């Protein structure tokens, strides 16, 4: 595998692209506008500069990593990719449209992976004429730091695709965990309802946001509290995942809290909009 296209230059796409270029892969980072691509690349450069400051990377290593990266708004630029990793908005209709498009453009042997947090790989794959080459490759945020990749087969995913993705995951210094297709897979089925519960606790006035987070950090040894984690993930992403859990299982325990909806409607998405449960410098 040499040339990889990452679709979506947001929180996850930029992180995935960063790790890939550091490992020497040629990456095309695609988004809908140059502005989104520039923002993603700016974040990558900032992270690489931080690594230099910490003595973990040299200036020339940074330059050679960045040489591996090409931003593009043109879908044609991905035609010769060996693998596409889609990290666009968590919405089934958007993902199906992307997969139908890339299926037409990419060479027949290319693997098409989705970084979806919760959606059905089988349904995404059904938008293509190569469902055997479609797979879930679920990274965690922040990608350069988090070691896990959940690898999820759809009903038609073949063995060669599974093996290739496991191999790439290890080459990226990540640990693959294979998961059967199920809403939210493993981590998000546990993590996002916990965040939703923390939002309920806040809405009921049981404790202030800072204290909810402090309680979970000191009482459960979590590295950050659930509300800060919601801000890191993005409240829109958290809501999308709760919606999938709720609609797929039809169980009221997965009902998104109205405060989560209100936050998303008010564009209080967390770090990416500068304000969520806490404030951040834009
Ligand atoms: C929604 C989904 O589908 C799935 C998901 O992703 S769910 C979310 C999963 N992620 C988590 O649970 C993250 C929980 N939080 C954490 O682990 C930590 O708070 C954290 C790693 C994000 C930050 O750690 P911290 O100790 O609070 O801060 P900080 O000291 O600044 O960072 C620790 C390290 O991470 C690095 N780091 C932090 N944010 C980073 C980023 N966005 N990109 C790259 N590196 C980053 C720092 O550079 C630092 O590196 P060194 O150890 O080499 O110095
Ligand atoms: N935020 C998180 O912590 C995690 C998110 N994910 C998943 O990763 C995916 C992306 O999430 P984020 O990076 O958080 O979202 P984001 O909102 O930060 O970025 C999404 C990007 O996709 C772009 N996009 C939308 N439609 C597109 C299209 N048709 N073609 C190209 N680009 C398009 C948007 O312009 C945006 O820049 C989602 O499926 C999400 O569920 C997975 C793991 C963790």
Automatic annotation (TrEMBL):
Keyword RNA-binding: no
Pathway(s) served: Lipid metabolism; butanoate metabolism
MF annotations from Gene Ontology: 3-hydroxybutyryl-CoA dehydrogenase activity; NAD+ binding
Keywords: NAD, Oxidoreductase
The UniProt record lists the keyword Methyltransferase: no
Domain 3-hydroxyacyl-CoA dehydrogenase C-terminal: 184-280
Residues at which NAD(+) binds: 8-13, 31, 90, 95, 117, 141, 272
Pfam families: 3HCDH, 3HCDH_N
Domain of life: Bacteria
BP GO terms, sorted: butyrate metabolic process; fatty acid beta-oxidation
Annotated site location: Important for catalytic activity: 138
Domain 3-hydroxyacyl-CoA dehydrogenase NAD binding: 3-181
Similarity comment: Belongs to the 3-hydroxyacyl-CoA dehydrogenase family.
Protein name: 3-hydroxybutyryl-CoA dehydrogenase
């Amino acid at each position: 595998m040499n040339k990889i296209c990452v679709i979506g230059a947001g929180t996850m796409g930029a992180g995935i692209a960063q790790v890939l270029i550091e490992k020497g892969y040629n990456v095309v980072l695609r988004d809908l506008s140059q502005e989104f691509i520039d923002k993603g690349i700016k974040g990558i450069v900032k992270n690489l500069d931080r690594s230099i400051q910490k003595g973990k990377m040299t200036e020339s290593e940074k330059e050679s990593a960045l040489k591996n990266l090409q931003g593009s708004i043109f879908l044609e630029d991905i035609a010769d990719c060996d693998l596409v990793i889609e990290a666009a908005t968590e919405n089934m209709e958007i993902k199906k449209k992307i997969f139908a498009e890339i299926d037409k453009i990419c060479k027949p042997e290319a693997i098409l992976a989705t970084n979806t947090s919760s959606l059905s790989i089988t349904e995404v794959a059904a938008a293509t004429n190569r469902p055997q080459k479609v797979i879930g490759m679920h990274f965690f945020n922040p990608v350069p730091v988090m070691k896990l990749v959940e690898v999820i087969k759809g009903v038609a995913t073949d063995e060669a695709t599974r093996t290739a993705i496991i191999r790439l995951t290890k080459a990226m210094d990540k640990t693959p965990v294979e998961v059967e297709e199920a809403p939210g897979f493993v981590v998000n089925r546990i993590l996002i309802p916990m965040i939703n519960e923390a939002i309920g606790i806040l809405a009921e006035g049981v404790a202030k946001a800072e204290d909810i987070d402090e309680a979970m950090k000191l009482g459960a040894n979590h590295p950050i509290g659930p509300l800060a984690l919601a801000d890191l993930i993005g409240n829109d992403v958290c809501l999308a995942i709760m919606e999938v859990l709720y609609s797929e299982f039809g169980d009221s325990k997965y009902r998104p809290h109205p405060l989560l909806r209100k936050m998303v409607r008010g564009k209080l998405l967390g770090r990416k909009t500068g304000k969520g449960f806490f404030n951040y410098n834009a």
